Amino acid sequence: MVRTGSTHITNNPGGSCTAQPLIDLDVELLAKAALALGTENAEETVNTARREAVVRTKQALAAAQLAAADNARGAALP
Fold first, then answer.
1. How many structural domains is the chain composed of?
2. What pLDDT score was predicted for residue 38?
3. Predicted TM-score (pTM) of this structure
4. What is the pLDDT of residues 12-31, one digit of tens each?
5. Of 15, 18, 43, 51, which sits with the fewest C-beta atoms within 10 Å of its C-beta?
6. Residue 48 belongs to what domain range?
7. Is 52 contained in some domain?
8. Phi-psi sector, 28: left (phi>0), alpha (psi -120 to 50), beta
């Protein structure tokens, strides 16, 4: 469940600020994801899961493009 509209402002070394959205997480699902991913904390788990989702999406797109190109070549052969 995501809570929108909430933001936490963090002061970083050097005087810069970072806005961090606050979200509600399913704690049981987070724990299962951490075990599956081999991560040690919530931030690492969430970032690893997002990174892996992006990689899987790119791989699926590339596979679909290769299949489409292969089908197009097959249709062009006599």
1. 1
2. 97
3. 0.64
4. 666 666 667 788 889 999 99
5. 15
6. 7-76
7. yes
8. alpha
AA identity, residue 58: K
pLDDT band at 35 (very low <50, low <70, confident <90, very high): very high
Determine contact, residues 33/49, Cβ cutoff 8 Å: yes
Quote the tokens at residue 60.
Answer: 């699926």
* Residue 34 included in any domain: yes
DSSP the chain: ----S-EEEEEPTTS-EEEEE-----HHHHHHHHHHHT-SSHHHHHHHHHHHHHHHHHHHHHHHHHHHHHHHHHHH--
Residues near 41 by beta carbon (within 8 Å), at least 6 away in sequence: 34
